[in-house]
Amino acid sequence: MKKIIDQPDSRGVLRERLAILTDRMQADIDAGRIPGAAMLIAREGDVVYEQAVGVQDPATGAPMTLDTIFRIYSMTKPIVSVAVMMQVERGRLLLSDPVAQYLPELANLKVGIETVDADGQPALELVEARQAITVQDLLRHTSGFTYGIFGESLVKKAYLKAGIGHPKSTSEEFIRALAGVPLAYQPGSTWEYGVSTDVLGVLLERLSGKPLDAFLEQEIFQPLGMRESGFWVEPRNQHRIAEPFAADPVTGAAVKLRQAQTRPNFLSGGGGMVSTMRDYRRFAQMLLNEGELDGVRLLSPKTLRYMTSDHLGDLPQAKGGAAFLPGPGYGFGLGFAVRTSMGGPVIPGTPGDYTWSGLAGTYFWVDPQERMLAIFMMQAPEQRDRYRQLFRHLVYAALR
Questions:
Q1: 267-317 residue pLDDT tens
Q2: 229, 273 in Cβ contact below 8 A?
Q3: Which of 82, 148, 152, 369 has the most crowded CB, counting CB atoms within 10 A?
Q4: Does domain 8-78+225-397 bear CATH number 3.40.710.10?
């Protein structure tokens, strides 16, 4: 991996425009909107911008640093997706394989259809799934699995009642609970954000015979030199954990993030990891390098391009769900939202760029055409949408 350079202009990034990015974030921090943030831009393999502003912990006043540890939530998903595709490259599974081949508890799932009963009350009718959920469905979120926490429906209520993904659950308990609730959509029909990548995490455990943390340590973290990434923070490093405001200063909503100090029972492949900005940069640089970093190759270039292509275009109803999070101008690949058009999104970018984010405010994207990656880290969940957009606009504004 190349060095950090002091002359961003040599990589087509304007120094004076980067100062605007820093000043804008600092102004919002001074106004009390967010506690702090860590930001990084790399282009052509070199880091051209790296800043930590504000505080790491509002309660103590500890400053934000470049090695602050963040709960990255759903930025766990791209890492697990890469791990799955590594197994595909080794011939250990196929994308067309039914998930029940590895997790037999998930055979014969029903789809929940909302209807009205004789008394005029909402009711859930269970119908047969027309096709099996495949590994590809899990990777591109067309499995029919959902979350119970985003939006409302009878299926989502069933998820909440069953405690799907509860941190005190084990992997086995998670799968058994998931087998007892209906799917939100027919498999292969609709993009729906949910526990699909958590299921992939359990699949990797079954396939390898190892806990997910040990498996990812061996397959991804050690090879890439990601020494600060995992599912919890060791006691010696807990003073570096970023914390949010107790209540969001804009919305007034109480902010409660998951604990990161002890190993959880359920190692969530969809949202359980912690990492630092510099560690995640190593993962993102591997992606930008089409599967390789510092002489270590995790995936072939062809596989990486396949993962970061849109996999929804041939599914007419795929984007018809109630909340298609990638938004206009984006499709979805195998673990990433993928930009399909220049116009349409409310954020700048390039067709072919790919991205994902985390609930607490972490965000990254890779732009192959611009030979660039960018990472934004904060712990302010109520403000995540605003700062994803703001950071994107100011990063592209700095390109020559």
A1: 999 999 999 999 999 999 999 999 999 999 999 999 999 999 999 998 888
A2: yes
A3: 82
A4: yes
